[in-house]
């Protein structure tokens, strides 16, 4: 847990980032990225129709899990105003990509903005308020029944639970639209209905009921795993913040975040989220600029004596599992 720290060097760091031109929009990159991803998505459905009623379609289901996540990454960038200067252009892009994968863009933006404002805050960050997991011993002690049993063994259940993450995202989207928790609920409702209708029609028009259900299970399950594996290393297992503890903006974002070390292939696979520290410090920074920003931010933190967390991909998952296992330890000990 993080203690009280005062003062902020963010303004100085921000000047360095702006001077380097790293907040400038990268429209060429995003036009290419969006066109390639959407065409790949469309090509996948052409291949789906051509292949017909075959169990080989399960390989295409895995392919769609990857493409769906890449589409979601673009929606994420639009939600942070990374792509265009105007809110309207970014929102149109985000709504379009949300519609393609069956997510409420408005719900996600609201949820994600709350996370960015208070990362790893035990009361204010929705990403550490998940019913089936406990990220602090306090949360674990409050679990009862099945949820308590799950918290005890959550390190072993973590990756299997990610198979349900896709379903959870769809359900949360529908619930939020039903409650009208965004600016354009009727538009988002129409997009979700259109997605569901087109998706189910395509699947069961081409596949037999059994193969269709298997296709949906593989697609949605692997999509959930990919999404979860992309976001989990960023903050899980990092220090948490309690109510009453204050941090300046720079330290709040850096000390609660973890970068994942890797090359261009990892930048693609994780949608730039492997530069989580830089992303949290400058949410509107275009994705391709994050790698260059990392050098400036890391050196700045070193000069200020601010812990800058970075590790390899597999090690990041190990940290997540170790943390979850440690949080469940008191529950296991109490029930012996």
Structural class: mainly alpha
Tally of DSSP helical segments? 16
> What is the N-to-C order of secondary-structure elements (H for helix, E for strand)?
HHHHHHHHHHHHEHHHEH
What percentage of residues falls in helices of 4 or more residues?
Answer: 55-70%
CA gyration radius, whole angstroms: 21 Å
Number of strands: 2
Largest sheet: 2 strands, parallel
Poorly predicted sequence stretches spanning 5 or more consecutive residues:
1-7
Distance between the termini: 28 Å
Mean pLDDT across all amino acids: 95
Name the overall outline: globular
Strand content: under 5%
Strand order within the widest sheet? Answer: 1-2
Can you characterise this structure?
With 336 residues, the protein is mainly α. It has 16 helices and two strands. The chain has helices spanning 10-19, 27-51, 57-79, 87-101, 105-117, 137-141, 146-152, 154-162, 165-178, 185-206, 209-231, 249-255, 264-269, 276-281, 290-304, 313-334, and strands spanning 259-261, 310-312. Residues 1-7 have low confidence and may be disordered. The protein has a two-stranded parallel sheet with strand order 1-2.
